[in-house]
Amino acid sequence: MSRDTEMTHPQWIHFIDTVKAEVLPALGCTEPVSVGLAAAIARQKLNAIPHSIQAQVSPNLMKNGMGVKVPGTGMNGLAIAAAVGAFGGDADAGLEVFHMLTPVHVMQAKALIDIGKVKVSVATTTRVLFAQVTVFAHGKSVRVTIADDHTHVVSIEEDGITTFLNQPTDTPSETATAVKLPQHTTVHDIYQFITQVPVAEIAFIEQAKVLNEALSIEGLTANYGLQVGATLQRHVDRGLISGGLLTDVISRSAAASDARMGGAMLPAMSNSGSGNQGIAATMPVVVAAEYLKASHEQLLRALMLSHLLAIYIKHHQHKLSALCAVTTAAMGSAAGITYLLGGSYQQISYAVSSMIGDVAGVICDGAKNACAMKVSSSAGAAMKSSLMAIDNICVTGEEGIVANDVDSSIRNLSALANGAMTHTDQQILDIMVQKAL
To answer: Three-class SS of residue 138?
Structure first.
């Protein structure tokens, strides 16, 4: 039986294709990954040991790359990302560009940085996501530009001559993602899809559980970052806080982010170009499903609801902004947990609206170890909103930016992120740059 025969609704096919395009394995924070990937492609084209590297990035990419560890290097920032990308990056591996790094590659990269041959600066560009890396060797150079999506190569120049050009047609400053959901999609459409789609069609989403759960275990058993998840678990063992569903949701979600932001050589299953968003859309649902002894089918449907809703919300916003996207990804988890609790469409809407009433406005001040704290806060908010929702309690349209229907609430939140918070974004970057001087 063909796929089209099994699923006669074209919107459902588009939903699945969108999730497959937006939920991908990623090794390390995806902003340094973009720089590393551009460097790896440039080195592949140059086919020589780099003598120097220059990188120019958008302000948002600089913000998200300044303070985060690059896997396998023990170092933070975009300079090491560009250097190890050039020496050991896999140009064909996309978001997993760093998966083949060796100690020799890291040593070579650090040596080039130590002699001042790796330069990173802020580009003058209207693109929110932009990374341009030029690799030099023996009087030759290759420049690779990635824009609008973390792996989207828009141009390659070899010795000043453009040899590849793939400019997008969307307005650069407004491009949020390369994949678009069908126009006029609603939360209700997503709910109908996850409750009716043949479960075999969404079985692939289980890989999000496999990858992000492995990161969570790594974060609980080793010393990464701020050890947010491990700290909570230690205090449960000491009797200072109680265990149970809420604590487990928070600690196991945070632990996955601890490991990811702390440089673990394990991929996260990302969502909308972010590993932390993927963790926030996955781990709360996984923990709740275990606690509730949900069936395998219920878990798959809840995970699909969470990830697709996270994509839907993010599609209303710029790719990178001052709004912490972990909070919006966890809104997907709130929906998924409510579904697992037996919640109706209306109760799922309540949970998402309450999340918007709770964590709207949490800022993104770059990728770093402290992201695990925001993951923990968002996971806790998702659990809280879900428990309120099944008792038919929620933030109402009479309060703040929340509207009387969930889709309007999402649009209001996104208007805040895309509008006034652009000024917040600039202020955050100014503060961070001054700290780095």
So the answer is: coil
pLDDT at 5 over 50: no
Angle between helices 371-390 and 345-359 (to 10 degrees): 140
Q: For 411-429, what is each residue's pLDDT tens digit?
A: 999 999 999 888 898 898 8
Q: How, if at all, do strands 140-147 and 161-165 pair?
A: unpaired
Q: Is 409 helix (H, G, I), strand (E, B) or coil?
A: helix
Which residue intervals of 47-140 are DSSP H helices?
59-65, 78-88, 103-114
Which among 99, 332, 91 is positioned nearest to 208, based on CA atoms? Answer: 332
d(CA 1, CA 109): 52
Q: Kindly report whether the global pTM for this prediction surpasses the value 0.85.
A: yes
**CA–CA separation, 99 and 142 (whole Å):** 23
Cα–Cα distance between 321 and 182 in angstroms, integer? 23
pLDDT of residue 432: 84
Residue with tokens 């075999």: 200
* Residue spans of beta strands (DSSP E) within 267-322: 268-269
What is the DSSP code string of 242-253?
Answer: --SHHHHHHHHH
Instruction: Work out whether the CA dihedral 189, 191, 195, 197 comes out positive or negative.
Output: positive
Answer yes or no: are the C-beta atoms of 4 and 47 closer than 8 Å: no
